[in-house]
Design goal:
12 helices; two-stranded antiparallel sheet; 58% helix; mainly alpha
């Protein structure tokens, strides 16, 4: 079995649906699969690999059931499939994942769903974050596609149980991820500067310290910073009886001197 089989299955299913309904389009197929048309197009053209998570989500609405599904699942898990996926990762991250990491408002929207006054609409998100309704709408679709938000029975959406895209711990082996990460950090830096000018000191904290150290202690310092930030965030989340704002915690530790 080759990875092309699932893409071929989807292509065949699209043709089958178009045969029974001549007005049925790729966009309609993407809607029924709950996936962005651009991402579906790439899958159909075999431009991106099909991951296990993607297979499990797309198979049911596409009409792929057991025992056929099991065969596709085993392939994706196989060493051959993972090798192919890794080689593509080394070259270029999928556009949707790149955008998710790169643009600051994706992780923010995920956390926004936890606010007590949250409204699942692009207009409300746009107003709350100061982004366009188009950006808000596309971001929500992207987050649903990649599994960070999920639709509810009433047609709305909420934070899923798949974790948060805010865990930006990525291997340096993936240049595309690092590029996206750098852009994200740059954007959050700009937001921090905006906050210094627009937000009252009573609702933010900004502090800096400059110190001369032995650079061999950097690795230990990084571990302590990670432990501190996780501990602080966990404490704030547990003590928040009513969540009414989304905050960003940034810690930078870098040398000011040259070698």
């Amino acid at each position: 079995m080759t990875e092309a089989n699932f893409a071929t299955f989807l292509n065949s299913e699209l043709v089958r649906r178009q045969t029974t309904n001549t007005s049925y389009s790729l966009r309609a197929f993407a809607r029924d699969l709950n996936i962005e048309p651009s991402l579906l197009s790439k899958i159909l053209r075999k431009k991106i690999p099909v991951t296990l998570k993607m297979l499990e989500r797309l198979a049911p609405p596409a009409g792929l059931i057991e025992p056929d599904l099991a065969a596709y699942r085993e392939y994706v898990k196989s060493a051959e499939g993972m090798k192919h996926f890794d080689s593509l990762q080394d070259k270029q991250i999928r556009h949707e994942e790149f955008k998710l990491i790169q643009d600051w408002y994706h992780i923010t929207i995920v956390e926004l769903t936890l606010l007590s006054d949250f409204e699942p609409s692009a207009a409300w998100i746009s107003k709350k974050l100061g982004i366009s309704e188009s950006e808000a709408s596309m971001a929500v679709e992207r987050l649903i596609t990649l599994g960070f938000l999920e639709k509810t029975n009433d047609g709305y959406f909420k934070k899923s149980g798949h974790g948060s895209p805010g865990l930006r711990i990525v291997s340096d082996d993936y240049p595309s991820y690092i590029k996206a990460l750098r852009q994200s950090i740059h954007q959050f830096g700009d937001k921090a500067m905006e906050a210094m000018h627009e937000i009252s000191p009573s609702h933010r904290a900004n502090t800096t310290l400059t110190v001369a150290i032995d650079s061999s202690l950097v690795a230990d310092a990084k571990k302590k910073i990670i432990n501190f930030t996780r501990s602080l965030v966990d404490e704030l989340e547990k003590k928040s009886k009513t969540k009414n704002h989304v905050y960003e915690l940034m810690v930078s530790f870098f040398p000011l001197t040259k070698d």
